[in-house]
Amino acid sequence: MIHPTRRTATDADFTRRRFAQLAALGIAAGAVPIAASTPASASAPASTSAGTPSASRPHYDRARRLAGDDPVLRALVTALTPGSDLPQLPAPAPVKLFDNLVLLSAGWVSAMAVLTDDGIVLIDALTSPADADAVIVPGLRAVGADPAAIKHVVLTHGHSDHFGGAQTLADRYGARVHMSPADWDLLARTRPADAPARDLDIADGEQLTLGGTTIELHHTPGHTPGTVSPVIPVRAGRRHHSAMLWGGLNPPSTEEELRTFLASAHAFRAVMRRANVEVELSNHPNDHGLERAEQLRHQPPGAANPFLLGGPRTQRYMAVMDAMLRGRIADAEEPTARAVAAPHTCC
Q: Is 255:329 a contact under the CB 8 Å cutoff?
């Protein structure tokens, strides 16, 4: 059962304290332009070891032109620039991004809770059982939702920063855990700590319905062999919108995997167009998302929701991703980049 939203003095104090921390770091409510944190490699021309321009340069330049002054798109350029690291931000208090969508964040990684008339679908489960106890459970209570109503935990991919709390929630509340077959197999091979027991497979294009809310789950391999990206119906009052969450942004290293990633982006962009996606979400702070969450938390009633980008802007988001991935592929094709790198294990 989903209870009406309620706020306590303790919740409010926590929110103000977190906002002050974000402001001190220069990120609250867009206090500092995103370009201020852009690594040099995001703006400097790419070149080969011989000093001649790399084949990747036109793609990176195109991505920057597409991004323009848009802080969300510029953050995406930064995130996909070789050598970039995730910003280390303090964990914000939970916040409703829409009437039926809650951001539950540990700072560098986030989960989303979809509230329905018959329970909760949790998208990702943060890093550990401790995160389930310290972030997810109290976070849901803080916005007036009952964590015992978690019916499904959908894992976007098989990295520990996304599945860590899943088994705890399954054991405690009887939630079913969903992941793609390829990433269940990944866990079976690697046997990481806190991995959930294999439960339900996600088929490509599967529709998960709970309480009249239907979430589409699409395979978008590249970040991992079985990364899944959801399309989520969200609402604000009487207005209904379609949201996307790209399941794993940090690109792989090899040319073959990068081409798989690019093909996934093309396919998902078509899904987004068909679903009239207007909202962009991320499970990491690589899209100006935590800054937008603080803006939303403190803005006056009736102000425009900063996560509602609109159809053309979400399509441009994917066009920026396309250009950056083409640049990464061109980099991988350079003779000096042919050594096989260690696989990434997060983000």
A: yes
Q: Do the bridges between strand 101-105 and strand 95-98 make them parallel or antiparallel, or are there none, so unpaired?
A: antiparallel
Please compute the mean of the pLDDT values over residues 137-146 and round it to a whole number: 98
**For 53-70, how does the pLDDT look when each residue is reduced to its tens digit (9 = 90+)?**
689 999 999 999 999 999
H or E stretch at 321 = helix 311-333
48: Cβ–Cβ under 8 A, 6 or more apart, which residues?
54, 334, 336
Bridging pattern class, strands 206-210 and 200-201: unpaired
Gap between the Cα atoms of 52 and 320, Å rounded: 24
Q: Which amino acid is at 341?
A: A
Distances (CA, A) of 262 to 154, 182, 218, 283: 23, 18, 15, 19
Helices and strands, number each (H, E), in the chain: 12, 12
Angle 300-236-166 from CA coordinates, rounded to 5°:
105
Q: Among 170, 164, 104, 159, which residue's Cα sits nearest to residue 137?
A: 104
- Neighbouring residues of 12: CB distance < 8 A, sequence distance ≥ 6: none
pTM of the model: 0.85
The mean pLDDT of 211-223, rounded to a whole number, is: 98
Report the alpha-carbon distance of residue 324 to residue 78 in Å, rounded: 10
Question: What tokens were used for 192?
Answer: 């990481």
With pLDDT > 90 as the criterion, what percentage of the chain qualifies?
Answer: 78
